[in-house]
TrEMBL record:
Sections of the chain in a coiled coil: none
UniProt KW keywords: Flavoprotein, FMN, Monooxygenase, Oxidoreductase
PANTHER family assigned to the protein according to its UniProt record, in alphabetical order: ALKANESULFONATE MONOOXYGENASE-RELATED, C2H2 FINGER DOMAIN TRANSCRIPTION FACTOR (EUROFUNG)-RELATED
Domain Luciferase-like: 7-387
Top-level taxon of the source organism: Bacteria
Family to which the UniProt record says this protein belongs: Belongs to the NtaA/SnaA/DszA monooxygenase family.
Protein name: FMN-dependent oxidoreductase (Nitrilotriacetate monooxygenase family)
GO MF assignments: monooxygenase activity
Length: 453
């Protein structure tokens, strides 16, 4: 039987490249209708979820913002996606709504209250993408903290998630919220508990006052494919975002599933989702021509700024004909896009720049007619063992051709569902009735009593 694929739509709350088109006066990324229309379109076309990426960071070199990032808006201006989610929840009914909060930015009492609120307002459709965060150099400066060592950032992330799970799962027993007008009891004090946490980074004694939401804990995502990132995903995440070439993806996915088994969760505890760019045209020739035109529109300087955003490494300061030297490659910024270009067949700095100019962090696009891109996507799933795609926006940000041609083609092939399963995001992934974390998830050990429905 064919695997049923999960389809998520990726967006960053920044301007689309169309802002560069002379005379363009379409809705702007600061306009709420831009986002509500987008969420409605994603839902109408059958996507499982819409993901809004986020970071406080921006491209820096030597601890200063790169002027080219400001001038060309290279991973620069954004609005806060978390603020948008409740508006998107109000105009949609089924689609999952996922956003990122870095474990370096907000503390667990804040994160747990925000996501629980959103889980109520969306009736159980919210997901948290757990990251240590891109552009850490900028973020650390902005928050007035020293750049923390990479391994320590991930240790802090694990401590953050532990306390967050305690607050979500441990504060309220499932039947604690009474709202009983006859007795005047709001909640049973014997079933609402203060949790204790004395971790290496977070200490807390207290509880989450917001009553349990449909999913209790939002569906947990993770992104960041360094070894420490893969381990964090295997331990806690229910879905993971990955971007690389097919062989590297296959290795990452089997490594994450192996680690998930070691954590007692099973190989299918996570949906492994590939960040895929679909460049759909009438023919392959046309798709290739449009792709080449898009690459030509990006300067190598912009590509270097983008690379610096993810890694803190200034490629323009390095020898273009040699691989990234190990001294530069050992920094404490994001590791995924450093480790990608190391090893015996490491590309030269020039080749890394060309790769970033063409594909950024996302790997090569699927190119051609709807049938051709569906063939390529299907082959990618077989080669990597992934569970679906996080579809990147096309240049106008609307994915019109993906929705109109590729989704129906995937549906015709029996690769995607006719309609979403269940009402919560977790059910969309794991089946009807699976609204809360499964017992095999580490969060389940913080429950004081089990739901017996
Ligand atoms: C599809 C995809 C989406 C991502 N979304 C975010 C995001 O919204 N915010 C963020 O800080 N990092 C995001 N990341 C991860 C960063 O690129 C970066 O790898 C991570 O935050 C740092 O961890 P690392 O050191 O393990 O690479 C995403 C990665 C992928 C592949």
């Amino acid at each position: 039987m064919k695997k049923t694929l999960t389809i998520g739509m990726f967006h960053v709350t920044r301007a689309r490249p169309t802002w560069r088109t002379p005379g363009f006066d379409g809705p702007d990324f600061t306009d709420i209708e831009y986002w509500t229309d987008l969420a409605k379109a994603c839902e109408a076309n059958g996507a499982d979820f819409l993901f809004l990426a986020d970071s406080y960071g921006y491209p820096t070199a030597d601890d200063q913002v790169i002027p080219n990032a400001i001038e060309r808006d290279v991973n620069f201006s954004t609005i806060d996606p978390q603020m948008l989610i409740s508006a998107l929840a109000a105009v949609t009914e089924h689609i999952g709504l996922v956003t990122t909060v870095s474990t370096m930015v907000e503390s667990p009492p804040v994160v747990t209250r925000q996501f629980r609120t959103l889980d109520h307002l969306s009736r159980g459709r919210v997901g948290w993408n757990i990251v240590t965060g891109s552009a850490q150099a900028a973020s650390a400066l902005l928050f007035g903290e020293p750049l923390m060592a990479h391994a320590d950032r991930y240790a802090k992330a694990a401590d953050h998630v532990e306390l967050s799970l305690k607050l979500w799962e441990g504060s309220w027993e499932p039947d604690a919220w009474k709202r009983d007008a006859a007795t005047g009891v709001w909640a049973d004090p014997t079933k609402v508990h203060e949790v204790e946490h004395d971790g290496p980074y977070f200490q807390s004694t207290g509880l989450l006052v917001t009553p349990p939401s449909p999913q209790v804990t939002p569906t947990l995502f993770q992104a960041g494919a360094s070894e420490a990132g893969r381990d964090l995903a295997a331990r806690y995440a229910e879905a993971v975002f990955l971007a690389a070439e097919s062989k590297a993806l296959a290795d990452q996915i089997s490594d994450i599933r192996r680690r998930a088994v070691e954590y007692g969760r099973g190989p299918d505890a996570l949906r492994c989702l590939i960040a895929g760019t679909f460049r759909v045209a009438d023919t392959m020739e046309q798709a290739v021509a449009e792709y080449e035109e898009a690459i030509a529109a990006v300067s190598l300087e912009e590509a270097a700024t983008l690379y610096s955003y993810f890694t803190g490494i200034d490629l323009l300061a390095l020898d273009p004909d040699k691989p990234i030297p190990s001294a530069a490659a050992s920094g404490d910024n994001g590791r995924t896009n450093v480790e990608r270009f190391l090893g015996p067949s490491a590309p030269t700095v020039r080749e890394v720049l060309e790769e970033f100019r063409a594909n950024g962090v996302m790997g090569k696009p699927f190119l051609g007619s709807a049938v051709e891109v569906a063939d390529q996507a299907e082959a990618m799933i077989e080669e990597t063992g992934a569970d679906g795609f996080l579809v990147q926006p096309d240049p106008d940000g609307r994915n019109d051709r993906f929705f109109a041609e590729v989704m129906p083609e995937l549906r015709r092939r029996g690769l995607i569902k006719e309609s979403l399963v269940g009402t919560t995001l977790r059910e969309h992934f794991f089946g009807e009735g699976q609204r809360t974390l499964p017992d095999s998830h580490p969060g389940a050990r913080f429950r004081r009593s089990r739901v017996t429905v």
